[in-house]
Give the backbone structure.
Amino acid sequence: MPELVLPTAAVRDSFLDGERAVCAEEGNSPAWLEAAAADFGSLVASRAAPRRVWGVPVTELWWVQARAYLGTLMIRHELTPALQHEGGNVGYHVVPAYRRRGHATAMLAAACGLCRDRGMDKLLVTCNEENTGSRRVIEANGGVLADDTGGIRRYWITL
């Protein structure tokens, strides 16, 4: 059964393959993965440690099953004005080979439990208006549409 875990070297090859597939799909350069492959331990250590990204404290978790990396989930513990518009408290992606199997829905459900345990009482989750899959994931986890502005749908999930 998949679970959310802190980044781990146990899924090195699967992580690199999965993120290469994400880069190819999105048309992004995979160059950063060469450095990651050369010193995967450092990548894992930096991502597992408490850090600030987007100007807020974040927790990065990986969705894994045994030695298979399935995706990443980011919890943003605070919201800037920019994140209030787009990004929200939780962001996630599932690598292409594991999509359409319910992983994103399960990831967000697990994140809701973690956030509740850490004292959060509601989460803002956003997605692009045309991203039907993400809308379904958010709504399956109790997301209530707050607004749809500039192509960004904003949902609140009460924990």
